[in-house]
Please model this.
Amino acid sequence: MKKHINGVDLWVETSGDPAGTPILLVGNTVLTWPDDLCARLAALRRFVVRYDLRGTGRSRTPGSGAGPEAPEYTLRDLVADAAGVLDALDLPGVHVAGFGTGGWIAQLLALDHPDRVTTLTLVATRPTAPGPSDPDLPEHAPELMAHFMNQPEVDWTDRESVVGSMLENARHMSGAEFDEAEARQAIERIHDRTLATLDPGDDPGAAHRADQMATAFAALDSGPRWRERLGAIKAPTLVVHGADDPFFPVGNARALAAEIPAAELLVLPGTGNELPRRTWDTVVSAMLRHTS
Model:
């Protein structure tokens, strides 16, 4: 369903019993959090809310060129959008979980709108915005960055070319136990949904990069640092991170857990910057306990 929030139309999806415990899952698009994972949470009496960030998925502005690679909005605008989603659904306070770049939105939501965040779960993220890492935090793995800097050219109008390229990205972002079939299925689902949102004249490459790779964040105005404010987070916090994450190495999670008061750290062995199905028993159990 479309909701008009902060001057833009955002696509919002819900699942589960509205009388259940509400949990806002923040990612790049709705599909950052897989449907089956959300179904498991909903079956455990969680009212699950997901949405496409502005400029992605069905929250893309018609005629925008289909790609926020030079966004006119800021990270703080995205935080205000998250709060606006809660207003639109008449949810005064919810449990909030953020994956990857969605973890930045979740952290700032807990800091700037503390009354809206009952608990906080941070998955595969870090305590600083895009750009060079703080000296005490591990940077992106050199092998991963070499891959990104030397990728073969992609035909963004060809499904298999796009899926093949994104599959290689997923392989490099994963841990030791990469499930190619599962990754392909997820990538194809995002690809086909992106294709269905394009308007005539839109740039399909920009749209696919926005939905698959969260490219807006590379150019986004992130505003003031917030790492130094982490000690002010009042919401009970669970930090979930892959032991083999090459994009945000696990030292970032350890910093989050150390700097947010009483935060709990859950490290997933053999896992990269991902939330594969084989981790769901562990992750869903932890989230269920954390949000009870």
